[in-house]
Amino acid sequence: MELFADNIEYILGGAIVVLGLLVIGLKDVLCFSFRRVWAISGVVFAESIRRRVLWVTPLAIIGVFIVAQLTKPFDEQDAIRQTLKFSIFATGLIVTLTTIILAATNLPKEIENRVIYTVVTKPTTRLEIIVGKVIGFARVSAAILLIMGLFTWGYLHVRAWSLQGSIKAGLADAQLSQVHRNALQHYREAGLLRVNTYAWSGEPQIFSQPPEGDRRWIPGGDQAKAQFFFDYTSADFTPPGVMPDTPIAMALLVDLSYQQSRTIMPEVDPLSAYGIPLPSNAAAEESTVPSTPTPLLPPRPRLQINIIDSQHNPIARPADLGDARGIMLPATDQFATMMIPLPPAIAGKLVTAGQFAVDVGTSALGTQLSFRLPQDQYQPISLRLINPETNQILGDLVPRAPDPQTLPVRFIGEQGTFGQQLHGDPHNSAIAVFAFRNTDRAVSSDGKINFEMNIGIERTGAEQNVDSDDYTELEIRLADPATGATSPPNIIQAESNRNVFFTMPADLAQNGNFNLLVRNLTTGHWVGLQARSVQLVTGNVLFSWNLFKSLLMLWLMSLLVIIIAMFCSTFLSWPIAIVLAVIILLSNWGIQQLGDMGNELGNQVAQQIFGGNQGQAPQFRVVSSSVNTLNKALQALAKVLPDISQFSAGEQLQRGVNMPWRQLIDAAAVAFGFGIPLTVLAYLFLRNKEVAP
Amino acid sequence: MADNGEAVRTNHLTKVYKDFWGRPKVTALDDLNLTIHRGEVFGLLGPNGSGKSTTIKLLLNLIFPTSGDISVLGYRPDSRLMKEKIGFLPEESYLHRFLNGEETLEFYGKMFRLDRRTLKRRVPELLDIVGLDAKARKRKLREYSKGMARRIGLAQALINNPELILLDEPTTGLDPLGTKEMKDLILSLKQQGKTVLLCSHLLADVQDVCDRITILFRGKMQTLGEVRDLLQVRDIAQIQARGLTAAQLEEVRQFIAKMGAQDATITHPTTTLEDLFVRVVLQKTGENIGAGGVGYAGASGDNAARS
Ligand SMILES: Nc1ncnc2c1ncn2[C@@H]1O[C@H](COP(=O)(O)OP(=O)(O)O)[C@@H](O)[C@H]1O
Ligand SMILES: [Mg+2]
Questions:
Q1: Is residue A201 part of a domain?
Q2: ipTM above 0.85 for this complex
């Protein structure tokens, strides 16, 4: 059953093809003549060309010229890539629009003005007519793509050549910053039309020192937090064997240790001044009661805990958990478990949400929190369910990620304008870790691997004048996660939104698994980091070849567009056929927008209707489950609709990335997977249609 | 296929046009039983809207019958083999407007999988037969006049040297000269042993070329028979002669009256306007009239006189 539901589109498509061609239309298949098909396609092609359809290309070209003037690229390479991206976008747009209109109007018009009479009374079949017309329009779109491709190729070569002139002029300018000069030199050597293949890390994570084994440290001062995922449903909050109506109280168990840095408290080791650590299985009531710090010592750091739902809306803030300043950490430098009772209102919200995340961090400057990664026997954090009347422990919910292969925790920095912020400090900067896994590497002749980096940098107001140097200094190291071996640091200079090219020794990245550790050494500069801020160069391909693949991709898309439009036109008048074709093309994308919310959608709608906190009410469940069922039905519908997002090439082009074959194959799978059954359907419809107006 | 000498047979053929909701709108054809023999020129006559085109569309599977059976050259209408052997000229020749004359014929030739060599020979030949000159061949069909479109339409109907030719109003849009050429062509097709089904509301067309006709009215068959039989007025005889003086004519009249004939009259025959037109045009172009020894047609217009 599962297998059936998962492959519904292939089963349906296969059934249509088999039934349509081998059962109903076998006679037409047996006498199928490609010569006739080609002749039919030739008429379609000649007619389109003679109606001057190709005049759409100058329009697109003018559009590209205008937009190329209006864009604000951050450097020469970006100028090229943006132009290329827009050129491909414009090409895709005109190809889609032209073919959709041509293909949707052709058949209705031929029936309307009876041209079809003389064709269907010849010994051709309606199968040949449909296939011939599809091929004819595919030839038209190929002609448009060819013209646009030649234009794009030529225009970009001219542009690259003229930009090399401005690069030369730029390099001659003594005022030029070193970072900019480096980038320009790279462009002069590598050329602007280079297309690379890249590998990327996942989202960077922010730590206070490099990870070691299963130990992780995060900085205080609100620079980072540990985020634990709880991917559960409301039902999971009633453990097995517990009566459904049993009242349930909850508490968070948090197990961590912390260190306060010596630069803040140089003389005294403060931890010894406080009481003994609590046994990890006992309630830590005491620790939640704020105690007055001894005036002679720096205050004991506090832990800030936030709980958010899957839409990043807050469920609980520190104030909801007892104290707006946070929870006092225990007086020990050992790992200790704190138990934080949750108020009933918060507990109710967690049951309703089912999916939520617990953020743990501290705002205390100079403090770092230490976690051990969750394992089977050890959990740094868990949600304890308790019967408030008997104080009996009903069960523990431990962090759980939606994908069991991934850790249910990540260590993230504060979100700034350009991504996770990495605050600058020459001595105690936090570390951003980009984890590269299973990557190919293009090792240069001198045993180095190449990286490209582009980051946004924020300045804090106070430092703006102090630091007259424009650039930000970053320290980069490469670490082997298996052995912990770390390369010597590479100090590089970066500017906001400017490409930086650097190399690292390849020896620690032998098996394609390595961590890139980044520190920010410039005080007052806050670097923003994202998943694709740093990319590893794994190879390069010819510009023309990549352009060709992009155009091929667009051609596959146009093929699907043509077939959908033809299909609609076999049973609808042309204006409605155009509209329906557009709807079919866009609906998968639209439904996907809904689908991303998962079961959350039902809960949200129900919450809107009944207000929050009614997770157990029967009406609530009816509404939420019926919305979820409807959503599932739409998802199923989306499976039998083509996914045109497979055809987007712009993203890669803008990054100058080689289009992988895999992507072309996926696009072809969509184009033919939907195109062939739809062609057969169109044939069956036309076969049973009276072709008289 | 059993060849029983029938080119077309319909059995209780009925066509009801339905509206969008499937409700009957027009009964265009009502219980038509028709048999057309091989080798004859058959005329389907009737006023506008009587169901002639509907009949042809049904024969060609362009529309599907509400009830009844059809056999064309022994095949069902959806048969591809049948289409190999027929030619069809629709009511109005709408062809691909952006192709020129030659391309049009090549395209239709390719539908019959004619090879390049055959096409090279056959296309100019056909263009000659239907009378399209070299200049017209290279022009796009959208620039054609109605008569030229008719001619190219006829040429595409003949591209496969068909056994059965269905012509729906073949002479609409043609000038009298073209009409005459069309009629001559139909007769020559007949001579080649082909079957022609001709639809028309122009009685003169039918009269001149058809062996048998049927008259349709409001979708029902009204009469069926040989043109000669249907039109001949058997109790009136007509004598034609040239070069007699008025006195001699009077003598002949009295002689006939003596023989006991009633209402004996002598008049001078008028030619039809069509014949006059053809004669004038052809004389101007210096060609011979070629058909019809006397050069005018009498009131009875017996087609035996032409052939
Ligand atoms: N597609 C159609 N829908 C509805 N009625 C039609 C359609 N085509 C023809 N008719 C009707 O059927 C009748 C016969 O039409 P037709 O066969 O075209 O006549 P004609 O003898 O002039 O060729 C007419 O009354 C006409 O209005
Ligand atoms: Mg008609």
A1: no
A2: no
